[in-house]
Amino acid sequence: EIYNAIAQQGLHPSYLPLGLTRQDDDPTNDSEVSGIVPALKHPNVTLKTNAKVVCLHTNPSGLAVKGVEAEIAGQSYLFMGEIVLVACGAVNSAALLLHSANDRHPQGLANSSGQVGRNLMKSLMTAVVQLSTKPNSGAFQRSIYLNDFYWGDPDFPYPMGHIQNSGGLLTDIIFAEAPPLLSVLAKFMPGFGLKQLATRSIGWWVQTEDLPDPNNRVRIDGNKLYIDYTPNNIEAHDRLVYRLTEVLKTIEKGLDGFQSGKIYPRGEVPIQVMANQCGTCRFGDDPATTVLDRNCRTHDLENLYVVDGSFFPSNASVSPALTIIANALRVGDHLIERFG
Fold it and tell me: Which of 142, 201, 301, 340 allows an S-S link to 167, with CB 3.0 to 4.6 Å?
């Protein structure tokens, strides 16, 4: 009903592509199901669980990584390899490189440009709640997205972003990590418990790209990790939130079961929710201003690659997951061509 009502406003909602396994124990087609489990069927693949990589060690010349130090069950192990690929996520990949500073690389590995950790990006995300008078399960999958305002509108000729429904509020992980929103929601529906709130609501995510800023960064001070982050591109995001609420007000006039014209509780995700993190080891041709080359190999070390979202020079308003996957496959093809 919501899909059709949005379409009747001259907009173009679409159904989100979802991967489902139909497995009772793990119905979502996640990286474990589609990546790790198939990889472990190969005899030359070993997975070390509960292992924390703490440092990368270079050879005496500092031109290549020769060892990966990891802590497993309280003991230190050193793993050797000819090629080292880092994929810890944009925050922790940068942190690992910075933690691995040595005499040859006093600012951290691959950091002759001073760019490791800088230009941290994470999508501007606001959760908007549409209140319903009819209960739902609170556990349904997300299904609809709307990109009509992705490239702006007649009043704002700049990208604004992506809108999608969250699915049931009881199943959305980021909603669970955003208790301020639930506190706001509780004020509008007093006397309800968490489950009752969630089953009388439909959630929407509004996502806008943030822009690269060298002052938004991951940094290390001693053994502590710090995130310096100030949101930007806020006007575009605020306009997109406004657009969504106007759409909801309009469609609710013809829908049964909604509190038409009422306020829409909303909350921005806090900084500790690092959804869609990217950009801390951006790639490019100039070693003075970038960390990685076009194949995601570090400019400074001949056998070290970073293949997660760190390589992004700019962000998008949608999840970076498919781009990260596609780029990892591209880098894999490069490695096969290079090393055979």
Answer: 142
